[in-house]
């Protein structure tokens, strides 16, 4: 068994389970204010304490997992859904106008810092979880396009692809039936990496007030609200920070473990 895969799956699964559970139950209402119980330390009543408004931190973390994962996974879906077909099309027509245009667009997008441009987009369109998703998803498109193109190019020179072309199959059909299944493992690993980066990006946007808006809970906004209270109530910043770190770490370990498990060259070396 691969420890990285197990640890990554466990940490990622914990975040997903917390997000799913928050749909039907949280210990307290994450939006309920209780000024008389503000800044309480962890106790049997509030396992992770309360914030400066008296809100239960554990309940807010569970609800925040839902919004953070939703933004990150939706952004990955946008990037993979648009970028992968573009990359496959560019590889199938290597050297064409489509290939050259896609390469230049990728270079143009990668030339700008992703988070700074995401802040610009959300500031222009307005702060919301939807606009944050679109901004993060935009930068996932060239990542998946370049990954799919690079992996697919190496397959188009193989004999079974040539056999499919001789059999009369078109480039689109070959890409869907023969190329995509053989690069799916690489795309899955890339998706876990982009999901972890998406969580960091969502936290950053929420930290500056451009992500999910109140009363929707968000890990990034929890950190922003806690930054002035670290000295008197460190638990208010500690737990959302740990949630971000552990979830991102889990997704990265999951990606490394999946790469080792799905890559036949590494699989033979590790077994």
Automatic annotation (TrEMBL):
Keywords: Cell membrane, Membrane, Transmembrane, Transmembrane helix, Transport
Swiss-Prot/TrEMBL GO biological process terms: transmembrane transport
Protein name, per record: ABC transporter permease
All copies of domain ABC transmembrane type-1, residue ranges: 65-255
Gene Ontology cellular component list: plasma membrane
Organism domain of life: Bacteria
Taxonomic placement: Bacteria, Pseudomonadati, Pseudomonadota, Alphaproteobacteria, Rhodobacterales
Subcellular location: Cell membrane
Gene3D superfamilies, per database record: MetI-like
Primary subcellular site in the record, as a coarse category: membrane
Transmembrane segments: 69-93, 105-126, 132-158, 179-201, 232-255
PANTHER family: OLIGOPEPTIDE TRANSPORT SYSTEM PERMEASE PROTEIN APPC (PTHR43386), PEPTIDE ABC TRANSPORTER PERMEASE PROTEIN (PTHR43386:SF25)
Membrane-protein topology: Multi-pass membrane protein
Family: Belongs to the binding-protein-dependent transport system permease family.
